[in-house]
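Changelog-adjacent note: as of this version, every example in the card shows the full chain rather than a window. The one below runs 115 residues end to end.
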Amino acid sequence: MLCAHNLEETVDHLFLDCEMARECWGLIGLTVNNPLNPYQNFEDFRMQLNVPFFMEIIIVMSWSIWAIKNDVVFRGIPASSLRCSQIFKHTFSLLQWRAKKKYFPSIELWLEQVV
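Full-length structure tokens:
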């Protein structure tokens, strides 16, 4: 359980509604909009990011949230936005090597500005 409030851990809650997930999205400047359904939230993220590699950012942050949840469950490592940030930075920096060359300068610049 990632959430300290002992709520049912649905996919929506884990990735969008949980306070820790909201903190993690906030690390990269994204705000979760409560009234929206998950698909609308991800579309809203796309508009907030306004970069051509938005999907990579969303996927890597989702992975980072999943990783800190697994750290809690399987390794006993407390969830923290700092840990999420570390995972995000490391994973996203690896992604640069696989990104389209035309995106590389803007990915590098975005990563330096945001995290």
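Structural remarks: The two ends are 26 Å apart (CA to CA).
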